[in-house]
Amino acid sequence: MYVTISRHVRVFLIEKQREFIRKWQNRANFLQSELPVEEISIAKTLADKGILVRKKLDTDTQYALNKHIKFTKE
């Protein structure tokens, strides 16, 4: 599955990343401390790809799903 970030930018997602997004997409935001250990690296990768928005707090990191992305099947 591809995710369209902007007009000419598409990013491919693997199955683990799609499952992660499905699991957390209904929440407005979530903290890194709420994630299981296995999912922390997935969240960091998705933030690097621009799918998640990352905000560093004093003691933790807050993630939220980017509102400008669109999911496409190609």
Short structural summary:
With 74 residues, the protein is α+β, with helices and mostly antiparallel strands.
Task: Describe the structure in your own words.
The protein has a 3-stranded antiparallel sheet, with no helix packed on it. Strands 3-5-4 form a 3-stranded antiparallel sheet, with helices on one face. It is built from 2 helices and 6 strands; from the N terminus they run E-E-H-E-H-E-E-E. The longest helix is centred in the middle third of the chain and has 13 residues, at 37-49. Helix content is 31%, strand content 32%. It has a single domain, classed as Winged helix-like DNA-binding domain superfamily/Winged helix DNA-binding domain (Arc Repressor Mutant, subunit A), CATH 1.10.10.10. The mean pLDDT is 91. The chain has helices spanning 15-24, 37-49; strands at 2-6, 9-12, 30-31, 52-56, 61-65, 70-72. The protein is of the alpha+beta class and 74 residues long.
Keywords, separated by commas or semicolons:
Arc Repressor Mutant, subunit A; 31% helix; alpha+beta; 3-stranded antiparallel beta sheet; 74 residues; 2 helices; single chain
At the first level of CATH, the class is Mainly Alpha
Task: Kindly report the average pLDDT value.
Answer: 91
Assign the structural class, choosing from mainly alpha, mainly beta, alpha/beta, alpha+beta, or little secondary structure: alpha+beta
What fraction, in percent, of the residue positions are helical?
Answer: 25-40%
Major beta sheet summary: 3 strands, antiparallel
Q: Which fold name fills CATH's third level, the topology?
A: Arc Repressor Mutant, subunit A
Number of helices: 2
Assess the beta-strand content as a share of residues.
Answer: 25-35%
CATH architecture: Orthogonal Bundle
Biggest sheet strand order reads 2-1-6
What is the radius of gyration computed over CA atoms, rounded to a whole number of angstroms?
12 Å
Total domain modules:
1
Count of strand segments: 6
- CATH superfamily annotation: Winged helix-like DNA-binding domain superfamily/Winged helix DNA-binding domain
Cα-to-Cα separation, first versus last residue:
6 Å
Oligomeric state of shown chains: single chain
Q: Helix and strand succession?
A: EEHEHEEE
Shape: globular
> Uncertain runs with pLDDT below 50, 5 residues or more?
none
